[in-house]
Design goal:
Structural class of chain A: alpha/beta
Strand order of the largest sheet of chain A: 18-21-20-19-23-22-25-24-26-27
Strand content of chain A: 25-35%
Oligomer: homodimer
Radius of gyration of chain A: 25 Å
Number of strands of chain A: 30
């Protein structure tokens, strides 16, 4: 695949590189005194030099003095480790709540030079036009933000209303674009397994274009289903949570992307594949490191792939192996190893300096031969991106939302309590549990039961003014008073509201309608914390620092209303995600995600004796 | 890159594979009881099964009974090793003197399932039309004969006359063809180093098409020149003869193709890179095994990649590493690892059974799910290929060749001897040495000196009836009487004649003119051995057995006339190859291949005192 994410395509500059390599012309830049991390042979080469011209590497060797001219920029690596820039093989920029350019600002100082970005969140809201808009924003930065075309919009067709829908024809069209290097995570693995036409057609369109199909196979099954999924041409998967999942994928020639995101920490378990391999000489070329979802505060205070590489080393993976997992292995996964992923002649000069190997502290990041970050600070200027109105005004809710919008009428003939099925969330886990609880009925309406930690939950369609909404109950947030709302509500990103009382729920909802989307916590008629995310209701156009600070404030607000789980907004945001078990709530209703059918909120106690309260 | 060398492209059969993997439909074939050589993780997996449908692998696992239906073909591997079929990453079919289909017949039983074939010999004679013709012949067999477009036709422009010429525009056109997966060995490495327009344009056209540029960097220089060459986008090279060459290439991200051909045995030296690596955990993913040139008798009696893998193991390389070098590494080199090179779901079912690991004896070869060879015997029928007349009548020599055609007039005023520069050949080496010898002058003509082993050598243009020819002297063949001639005469493949007397030389030449080309040995007016190669003057249309037998007979004939060097016809065939040092003879004259200039046969003794006879 030809890659256009470079200063100059290789085919235009072969002469230039060849003459510079031989010193017949001066290099633009020469790096001296590098402890080169050679990811091709897994060696460290001491006292190396690298000569760069046209944004690409012309020479790598022990002595580049012949490449140095009067105008050559000299960079003394001062005996630091010099590695290929890090590649994130699976990532959603939107999870950072940042605009694409601010995301670049956040990750480039941490050594990330390229991302393989599945923009399915923004696509759900704004369609492919929204993706192109974000790509345009990203292109203002040095970060190589390569797109994998969202494959599952909506995530579960027929069960929710999204802002847009992607079909196989859209995928085929997108594959013609240079900036699109593959297909985004094929979450519809049941569709692949059971012959869904659109799922297979999307994969086929990608394969026919010679591009890469990325996966999402999230069940702990490693035999028939996994074989079926891989046989359909799906090349990588970031959804291994057990070491045997990752091992099975690698054995079947699938790139196992070990995930270490803000909320999901798979690395501790998965590293065992490498630290405790099934045989001597175990080949790790099919293992990669990826982030998937990273929150702004993680990016701000912890880092990105530098942190993940460090974590891999902490888990006992050899430093060079860990760096291969974030560089050449990912490049080979995408068949872009002729462009990136190693410090070798002809490749883009995407390079990081590391203070040390264990901490993986990035001292300098170079992209296409230009130093773009140093000592944790980006060196490129960014003006705010000018979004068109359709991108920043995506709250299209038909009805006026008032306190009485949240009244839930009890079934006719109900007594003073009713049995309902509720969604029980589990801290720091993506799964939910279906549970059955008795709730009080007051004046004909079912109420939340704060004592039992069971709260009203509403989802309002916000894309097409359809006025559709649905309700249910969520258990497990520990909230004692107040309400929360969010338009980050996977994957349709409708307006999700949850709370102890109708007044606060209305205030939370209306605050977000006013702010153009985001995440809010209210209590007793007051807004305690607000992250305004006007871009598609998912992202801010503010700086990383501002967004991280808003997130920190909101985390405090969550605590103030009694919720102490880690990343509660992430757990909350998954309530509508109908592709994960067991019970979810979309704008169309309660969905049993094991049988994929809508289910009633109210349970007929006599007819369902087996559903005794668990 | 989409590969069309398969029964069905993956994008057409993803549904089929997925359902078979899960047993919802029966497989075409199931392999049972395999000791699977997993080249992805470098493991051996005992008691494995493989289910196949549409020519591709649907399932790999411990139990494929769910894939077995009434019509499923069951193949019991009987606990033998089961590996991916072997891929030869650099090979010239023409060196085998066989037609492409007979070549396939020869190598498939040895486990070769795919070749990356640079048909530059036939291209020199018949142009790209000849290449297409051979590809058509190859396509009648199961062997995946992928073409890398010849890049250097002629090998050294301006110094010889070939049947055709390839320019960058031709390369750009060829890249549009599905069967062309890259550019053939860029032998013009000086052109790459010194900015030759056509050389760089050919590379650029290939890179722009997203295809692979293969290399030929034959000098023992691993710093500036090698960096320059690789920086121009050249991805692999089979011309390492010292272990440090191969190591340098791997370190610079170039696939080092370890060669073990009939005449050139590099493996003993190169294996040291892997058996005595520069560091612990040395990564070998950039090392491959290839054959380059294999003669019919080698193919007939020794084998192909099975032999080379065995040789690698003999040199101390771990069996799985050696097999990776002939499978997945080569597939990754060509970015075709999504199609071939591993036994994993979705890939073409190109599989070999091995009796053991050390001897690498191939018991069965499967291509696209069909058993195509078993116990050393191909299982496909071949009728002789119908060549058009232009392909089998390529001897276009203007002049009538008689004994007096070989008279070499001495310079005016010469005495009874003259000083000439001669080409000294070295057994089993590609290089020659320029030497200076005194030769007798009889009746005004310079004669061969059999006692000193210095013989007249002529090259006649044979492509375009130009009537051009040139002459010189060759030293080192040890021939006592008679003459040899060959139209296998790299790379222009003009008619090369060498001998002790003019009469036998004329007979040798005319015998080949009559046979449409080939290789001949004559003595005292009799033909002692003839390999008729009417296809382009390079290949026979006979069977492997017949050609091997003719070659054996000719080897005996060589001995009869006194030549005892190994593969003398190969050494002889390189006399005109003006891209290798030091002195060569083309149809245009004697070429000094260090300075790339024509030089005189006769040396002025007084003016050149330093050229005292060496």
């Amino acid at each position: 695949m030809i890659n256009t994410f470079c200063k100059a395509p290789l085919h235009e500059v072969t002469r230039e590189l060849a003459v510079v390599a031989q010193g017949q012309k001066a290099a633009d830049t020469v790096i001296l005194n590098a402890k080169l991390i050679n990811v091709c042979t897994a060696e460290i080469q001491e006292s190396y030099s690298i000569a760069i011209v046209c944004g690409r590497i012309a020479y790598v060797g022990e002595d580049a003095t012949h490449c140095i001219g009067e105008d050559t920029q000299l960079i003394d690596a001062a005996n630091r480790y010099v590695a290929p820039g890090f590649l994130d093989g699976h990532i959603h920029v939107e999870s950072s709540m940042l605009s694409a350019s601010q995301y670049a600002r956040a990750v480039v100082p941490h050594g990330t030079v390229a991302i393989f970005w599945d923009p399915h969140e923004v696509c759900n809201v704004l369609g492919f036009e929204g993706v192109k808009l974000m790509a345009k924003d990203a292109a203002r930065t040095p970060l190589k933000a390569m797109i994998v075309m969202p494959s599952c919009v909506p995530a579960v067709p027929g069960f929710e209303d999204t802002g847009s829908a992607i079909l196989a024809d859209d995928v085929a069209e997108a594959m013609k674009l240079d900036g699109v290097v593959g297909l985004g995570e094929m979450m519809n693995f049941p569709g692949i397994l059971f012959g869904d036409t659109n799922a297979h057609d999307e994969v086929a369109a990608t394969l026919e274009a010679g591009k890469i199909v990325t996966g999402h196979y999230s069940v702990p099954e490693t035999d028939q289903g996994l074989n079926a999924y891989i046989s359909a041409g799906i090349r990588c998967c970031h959804e291994s949570t057990r070491f045997e999942d990752a091992l099975a994928k690698m054995r079947l020639g699938m790139y196992a992307q070990f995930r270490e995101g803000s909320a999901w920490h798979d690395l501790h378990e998965l590293a065992r594949v490498i630290t405790n391999p099934p045989c001597e000489g175990f080949d790790t070329r099919f293992a990669c490191l990826i982030s998937d979802d990273t929150h702004p505060n993680t990016l701000h205070s912890v880092g990105h792939l530098d942190h993940i590489v460090k974590r891999a080393i902490e888990e006992g993976i050899e430093p060079i192996t860990a760096i291969q997992m974030a560089t050449i292995n990912t490049a080979q996964c995408y068949q872009l190893d002729h462009e990136m992923g190693s410090i070798t002649p002809g490749k883009c000069a995407d390079i990081v300096f590391l203070e040390d190997l264990e901490q993986c502290k990035v001292a300098l990041t170079m992209i296409d031969g230009v130093v773009v970050a140093q000592e944790g600070k980006e060196l490129f200027e960014l003006s705010p991106f000018e979004y068109p109105e359709w991108a920043t005004h995506s709250m299209h809710i038909k009805q006026e939302i008032r306190a009485d919008s949240f009244k839930i009428a009890a079934p006719v003939g109900a007594g003073d309590k009713v049995l309902v099925r509720a969604i029980e969330v589990i801290p720091a886990r993506v799964g939910t549990v279906e549970c059955f609880v008795h709730l009080p009925v007051v004046a004909g309406f079912v109420e939340s039961d704060v004592e039992s930690d069971v709260l009203k939950t509403f989802v309002f369609e916000r894309h097409h003014n359809t006025g559709t909404f649905a309700y249910g109950f969520a258990k497990g947030f520990g909230i004692e008073s107040g309400a929360m709302a969010s338009t980050v509500a996977h994957d349709a990103h409708n307006l999700l509201v949850l709370g102890t009382n109708d007044e606060d729920m209305a205030l939370a909802a209306n605050t977000l309608i006013e702010s153009g989307g985001g995440s809010v916590v209210v209590k007793d008629g007051k807004v305690l914390g607000l992250i305004a995310l006007p871009v598609a209701g998912l992202m801010s156009n503010d700086s990383l620092e501002e967004v991280a600070s808003a997130v920190a404030a909101e985390e405090e607000a969550w605590e103030k209303i009694g919720c102490t789980m880690p990343s509660p907004f992430m757990t909350m945001a998954l309530i509508p995600l109908a592709c994960l078990p067991e019970l979810r709530l979309t704008n169309r209703g309660l969905v049993d995600c094991r049988s994929f059918e809508f289910v009633d909120l109210f349970v007929d106690e006599e007819a369902n004796e087996e559903t005794a309260v668990r």
